[in-house]
Amino acid sequence: MTPVEVEGLRATYGDFVAVDGIDLRVHQGEMFALLGTNGAGKTTTLETLEGHRRAQEGQVRVMGLDPFAHRRRLAGTVATMLQDSGFAGELTAAETLRMWQRLHPGRQGPADPLAEVDLDHRRDVRVQQLSGGERRRLDLALAISTDPDLLFLDEPTTGLDPESRERTWRVLRDLLERGRSILLTTHYLEEAEALADRIAIMHRGRIAVSGTLAEVVGAHASRIRCELPAVPDKLPLFEGEAALDGRRLTIRTRCLQADLHRLLTWADAEGQTLKQLSATEASLAEIFKDVNS
Ligand SMILES: Nc1ncnc2c1ncn2[C@@H]1O[C@H](COP(=O)(O)OP(=O)(O)OP(=O)(O)O)[C@@H](O)[C@H]1O
């Protein structure tokens, strides 16, 4: 069974279209990262998948079921980590965990979920006294406590220091190794690069780009950059687009090898020594910027 299947999902707030006909699938054992600027429609999509909102148009299936109609049934196998879980501040971390496990009967997860997220020393501290990063880790401890098959994580590492982020990544990698599936939203592109099997970049309610990282990067133009010794009278004809800024040459191309060969052959023939020559594939950051421009 495909854990998440979405076809033509559309969600509106009054006249405003927040999600405009998106398709996506999360396969078993993979992490799918949903990226996009503020307001792109990620949380609305996630809320629909979590069963908090009815899909206004389109088909949504979570573990084969309509999540809005079967929210309670899915609670045993699907865990969610929202941006704001709204815990009672006066409960301690350990009491919150016990309450969560009572409300979300599922399988037995790790023996000590608080230790998994490095919060064991904070178990008797009231939630209102935890730092923002510690609350995020408590959210994760709750989500993994019932050993769910599928996890929805909305910005799980926002506000975490680098060490805590590493820790969270280890927890998520461990879940993936055990065949669990994860759909996460994040603003950290390096998080998607480090963890995700597939990504989608949302923009104004639509999915602008999706695929594995290699597919997404491969579909985008690479860049060749160098500095010429003098402004040339003429440049060779490249497959890609060449732009000169004084003596700095940038070529945006989908034919990296052919254009690099052309540039080097031309430089050889003209006796030009190229400085600071680099040839790089597009980064996720550049692709993200292109999508949002
Ligand atoms: N309750 C609401 N009423 C009206 N408009 C809303 C409501 N919730 C969200 N929106 C609008 O829908 C759009 C999508 O919001 P959403 O929260 O899904 O985006 P997002 O990609 O998760 O953003 P962020 O990265 O800031 O969390 C935004 O323009 C937002 O202002």
Automatic annotation (TrEMBL):
GO terms for biological process: response to antibiotic. It comes from the Bacteria. PROSITE patterns: ABC_TRANSPORTER_1, ABC_TRANSPORTER_2. It is found in: Cell membrane. It is a peripheral membrane protein. One of its GO terms (molecular function) is ATP hydrolysis activity. InterPro entries: AAA+_ATPase, ABC_transporter-like_ATP-bd, ABC_transporter-like_CS, ABC_transporter_ATP-binding, P-loop_NTPase. Transmembrane segments: none annotated. Residues 4-229 form the ABC transporter domain. Its main location: membrane. GO terms for cellular component: plasma membrane. This is ABC-2 type transport system ATP-binding protein. The lineage of its organism: Bacteria, Bacillati, Actinomycetota, Actinomycetes, Streptosporangiales.
